[in-house]
Amino acid sequence: MPSWPLNQWYIAAYSSEIEEGLLGRTICDEPLVFYRTSEGEVVGLADRCVHRRYPLSLSHLKDDQIICGYHGFTYDKSGSCVAAPAQKRIPRAARVPSFPVHEQDSFVWVWIGDSDLADTALIPRAPWLDSPDYTVVRGREPIQGRYGLLVDNLMDLSHETYLHGGYIGTPEVAETPITTEVDEEANVVYVSRHMDDAECPPFYANSTGIGGRIIRWQDVEYHAPCLYLLHSRIAPAGVLPPEDGPDDKAFHVEVTYGITPETEHSTHDFWMVARDFALGDEKVTEYLATNNHTVVMQDVVALNILEEVVEGEKENYQELSINIDTGGLAARRILKKLIAAGEAPSAAPAAAPAVAGTV
Amino acid sequence: MPSWPLNQWYIAAYSSEIEEGLLGRTICDEPLVFYRTSEGEVVGLADRCVHRRYPLSLSHLKDDQIICGYHGFTYDKSGSCVAAPAQKRIPRAARVPSFPVHEQDSFVWVWIGDSDLADTALIPRAPWLDSPDYTVVRGREPIQGRYGLLVDNLMDLSHETYLHGGYIGTPEVAETPITTEVDEEANVVYVSRHMDDAECPPFYANSTGIGGRIIRWQDVEYHAPCLYLLHSRIAPAGVLPPEDGPDDKAFHVEVTYGITPETEHSTHDFWMVARDFALGDEKVTEYLATNNHTVVMQDVVALNILEEVVEGEKENYQELSINIDTGGLAARRILKKLIAAGEAPSAAPAAAPAVAGTV
Amino acid sequence: MPSWPLNQWYIAAYSSEIEEGLLGRTICDEPLVFYRTSEGEVVGLADRCVHRRYPLSLSHLKDDQIICGYHGFTYDKSGSCVAAPAQKRIPRAARVPSFPVHEQDSFVWVWIGDSDLADTALIPRAPWLDSPDYTVVRGREPIQGRYGLLVDNLMDLSHETYLHGGYIGTPEVAETPITTEVDEEANVVYVSRHMDDAECPPFYANSTGIGGRIIRWQDVEYHAPCLYLLHSRIAPAGVLPPEDGPDDKAFHVEVTYGITPETEHSTHDFWMVARDFALGDEKVTEYLATNNHTVVMQDVVALNILEEVVEGEKENYQELSINIDTGGLAARRILKKLIAAGEAPSAAPAAAPAVAGTV
Question: Domains, chain B, ranges and CATH?
């Protein structure tokens, strides 16, 4: 049994990564190849020729078909072989598996598991990622560690104080208690930490221009297994959201992560920071891109180390958990449930109507 | 059970590699050390001292004896210990295994398995490799992949069109059907592809000077497990071999490979290109050496990738084979038979009388 | 069962390595963190936070306490957690294991096993290492090989002739028979080789200034498992120790090794050369430091190779041992006995009264 749920949608790539040519990427231990047809449709196929296993991602794309780089077996977008060397008859079994994909919110999602079930599952939303009301910086980092370590990391933001001190961490993050809620049906974990009089970390001081103390709210929404949303509200101390009308005295940052297992011991860390202020301001964009990349790399280095620690761990080692871990433990429990089910569809809409994936 | 046949002759080295000093090389998972005595005889011994396993290949050669570089145990060419530190009595068991070797056609062959059987087996021939009628370029590349991948590769030359396009591949190679024959007694597989009106690839255009379309014959002779011969005939379109008399209107290239397992996951790829034209022409020699090395490296890169794919493969993965694979499948079947037998001597003479290996 | 004895004192570090800050080091497969308190006491704790396993050695030391670099769990020198994020109550189980340490003869020793037994075991001595009567050069090299290979190496000095020829080896070392004694109670193996008319190797010629032939005595004392002493006496040929009075016509070198397993396949090689002549002579010090480092690296390279050989070894491989191996075989036997006992305290005083380790 793999350590991730099957029959789930996972973020395979940013849409912008699949334009020209072939993209090879392993998702949940499945080597896949992606490309975009001349009509703009994204195709996801198993990344090995049926003949002698050569990776199709290292092959040739021509007229929306992949020609294997080893012996020339040729596949159409459904994965069917349409040409083979030195013979006219194509064996009926000559077909590579095709995977349901769906583009949404600047992501290419792929369905891992039984493709007949793909239509039944809702894909969680992050509409700010391609909205004109937000400016977004983003990146993707490989982690040499299991995806659960990144889930743990993001569910317990008290680590910001210690691992990201001087960037996004201040003493209040670790000191302020959290509240946790779980939507067992939608498989969503909510963790909130509201700091009503906090130091403003450089990350937000430099991007918002706020000088003094702030209200800082962190509202986490984890749509197991793949999409993590941190709704971050920053406002000068004392500025609360109005009873009605827009919350335009506050700054909103949608920190978004795609947490996609690559293998049992490696993870794709898709990270995005969307803001509703200083729209299009290149200097702020550059500042947030550079500094968030630094913060992401602090996590990557720590998680790579933890993977080695866990791998070298003696059997029956016991962790100790405390209040701050309530959200992380809930996430683990839901993942465990989804893995056991192997088929439980995940996720409800985050901020917009869900759309079923189409094959 | 190893994945190669025991009780077989394998190419260990080119004769020219064993002149002065000690050569350490692993053949079929056996770490061996080779050297040439002052009388010109090649010696092959197990590459570890009986005392504390130190590699003899990292030791000292003096007066046709190896003195271990760790504690000075000294071995003669039969592998017998003739001196030990701080005592006069040499323990009777102090002897490293010696392996039958035989020099022929510019190769040093070594016998892996029961040395009593070495005399009974014929070593296949490639006499052009040290004939004055041919000029030869050659090299040796390590492959980080099992030897069976190289056998597959060479038995199905339709890959030339895709992996070696622009060098030795043209569309006709993949398009032209093959004929296959198997000599079950001699354990030789023959695969022929005769293209009677084909494009001339740069490799041959630049070395023969032929401008237009060509007759191109590829006659493969695989002497399982180790020696692969590709008799290549290139002639201007329409020029067939005469009924009698020499075929001197055609160009002949003897592409020769030694396929020697190093370990379960690595292979020695000995490659040679012998031609019967432009003899001694340095420019042609340089051109063929450079370009064939490029072609070999295209294979090496592909096979290294395939090894990773096969290693990461899920159980019960099924390949799909078609007509072009007839030769490769026959080779696999013969190897399987030889492995099971573990003792079936291999190989009949290719172009000259066979000579039994001598110890 | 590990391949080293538990319930033993092992050399973890030189005292000089633990001054400011945190030192992470794995000893016998236990990741440990060391630091020195403001009062000068050395502390040894398990190197992972009880919460999410983050290495404490990558964390922060403040006021003699370690603050975890991930979420801020804080530990005092006993390993007790004294602060946790976002809550006042510290879980009772929040404690990292603490390991008995003892400073002596310029070493920090650590006790691996049942800490209640630490007081019962004597720690062997090497008092010259912080004596004003000696000048010492020293270093530490990682070996990518099991510690037993270093024990083998040091117990059989006949290898000096072959592996260290031109440095410390001369023909007489390999030629001269040894005498071996074993103290079964104290778990000490003694090996002596007295060469009364020997070539003076450059190592000693250049440091002592002796020009001609020498008396060279090597008296080995191996206190299993960790401390190896080579009492080396060099004197001009014919100069024997006086019946009474100091042996001041001879040069004495105390070659000392700490042999500490890091993991099953790696070892900390602590090496020291203490001399009772040319005290404080920088040129001699520099010469001995450089040349002994060269000699140590010759061993390291050889042992790294042997580890690969042993790892790749076929089952049931048999070594062959001869007279020179008597000491090494005795050492192996004692180590095997100590491993089986799992609790047998080791070591008697080498040259001074033993001191029990204190926690």
Answer: 8-121 (2.102.10.10), 126-343 (3.90.380.10)
